[in-house]
Amino acid sequence: MTRPITSDYGKELFEARNKIITESNLYSPLHKAVAKIIKVHEISANPATIADLGCGEVSHLQSILESFSNNSIIGVGLDISKEGIIMASKKYGNPIWLVGDLGKSPFSDNSFDVILNILSPANYNEFKRISSRNGFSTKKFTLPLLPHR
């Protein structure tokens, strides 16, 4: 972060969010669908890179990464909330966690094969900038994953 941020998202909110996401089956279909889409696209980069921008306490990214049995994927979670990233770093060891603004991410152009943005504010210009040429964003798949009303 280039400046201090005061966030309304605190430890209690992230603990409750993590409990709902990891201890219920509410998001399991979403996680399975996203993992399936990633597998279908057979990303040629080895290791492939996945960024979850606005990751919170990172339980969505972690659940998706658990769908892959090998170490061919590097996960990176970025969130503006220091509390969320602290919780993620204590609970999950493998992915890389960063406090930062998804609208002005610290990542280089074309640095990620997959961009996740689940239930978080979005900045599609930034997502496009950091997506690799062969990568994709879940934005392209939003409608097929959600039931039509």
Kindly state the mean pLDDT as a whole number? 80
Intertermini distance: 39 Å
Q: Tell me the overall shape.
A: globular
Poorly predicted residue ranges: 137-149
Strand content: 15-25%
- What strand order characterises the main sheet? 3-2-1-4-5
Radius of gyration, rounded? 15 Å
Question: What CATH architecture do you see?
Answer: 3-Layer(aba) Sandwich
Would you give the CATH topology?
Answer: Rossmann fold
Question: How do the strands and helices of this protein lay out in sequence?
Answer:
Layout: H1 11-23, H2 28-40, E1 48-53, H3 59-65, E2 73-79, H4 82-91, E3 96-99, E4 112-116, H5 124-130, E5 131-137, H6 142-145
Parallel strand pairs: 1-2, 1-4, 2-3, 4-5
What does it look like?
By secondary structure, the chain is of the alpha/beta class. 36% of the residues lie in helices and 19% in strands. The protein has one domain (11-144): 3-Layer(aba) Sandwich (Rossmann fold). It has 6 helices and 5 strands; from the N terminus they run ααβαβαββαβα. Strands 3-2-1-4-5 form a 5-stranded parallel sheet. Helix 2 packs across helix 3 (59-65). The radius of gyration is 15 Å and the shape is globular. The termini are far apart. Mean pLDDT is 80; it is low at 137-149.
Structural descriptors:
19% strand; alpha/beta; 149 residues; Rossmann fold; 5 strands; globular; five-stranded parallel beta sheet
Short recap of the structure:
With 149 residues, the chain is α/β, with parallel strands linked by helices.
